[in-house]
Design goal:
The chain has 168 residues and is of the alpha+beta class. The protein has one domain: Roll (ph1033 like fold), CATH 3.10.590. It has five helices and nine strands. Strands 1, 2, 3, 6, 7, 8 and 9 form a seven-stranded mixed β-sheet that branches. It starts with 11 loop residues before the first helix and ends in a 5-residue tail after the last helix.
Length: 168
């Protein structure tokens, strides 16, 4: 049984200055974020990550994956607060998808966990409720090819609530 979630009241002027980000990842790199408290993107994503500021929030999205003949659905695994400006680091800690070759994701930010979801939020089940996904049938087009993207505050709040809603 899950304990009741802790709710924080954040003053409106602080909320309006925060940006909510969806960080698009694979499951291996999601583990790197969790274990090393760092998020990285390829150089081609400099326009996105350079806009990320300390105090912003990052939700980690992982794509679907087949493990032992079982399909793991796309999901949101947790929420993190950004605690650094963007920096560059060539240390090889991330796993590059085959289509990106030997990419090391050198543009990085430090993060700290707000909440790691005990059970990841199944992304497909929340698509009808997300405002940033305007084409619900071709939803992957809102994510594919991006390292990260801004999402509206109401989508962030919906995802956080979904993480605390009992699921079957």
């Amino acid at each position: 049984m899950r304990p009741d979630p802790i709710h924080f009241i954040i003053p409106e002027d602080i909320v309006s200055s925060m940006t909510r980000w969806l960080a698009i990842s694979n499951r291996e790199n999601s583990e790197v974020v969790l274990n090393k408290n760092v998020w990285g993107v390829p150089r081609r994503a400099i326009n996105q990550i350079s806009k990320v500021k300390p105090g912003d929030t990052v939700l980690i999205y992982v794509g679907q994956k087949i493990v032992d003949k079982e399909m793991l659905p796309p999901a949101i695994t947790g929420s993190f607060e950004v605690i650094s400006e963007m920096y560059e680091d060539a240390t090889e800690i991330f796993t590059s998808p085959p289509k990106l070759g030997n990419e090391i994701f050198p543009l990085r930010i430090k993060v700290k966990p707000i909440e790691i979801f005990d059970e990841p939020v199944d992304f497909k089940t929340i698509i009808p409720h997300l405002k940033f996904i305007t084409n619900k049938k071709q939803w992957s087009g809102h994510i594919r090819g991006q390292a990260m993207r801004i999402i509206p505050e109401e989508d962030y709040q919906f995802i956080m609530k979904a993480a605390h809603t009992p699921r079957d």
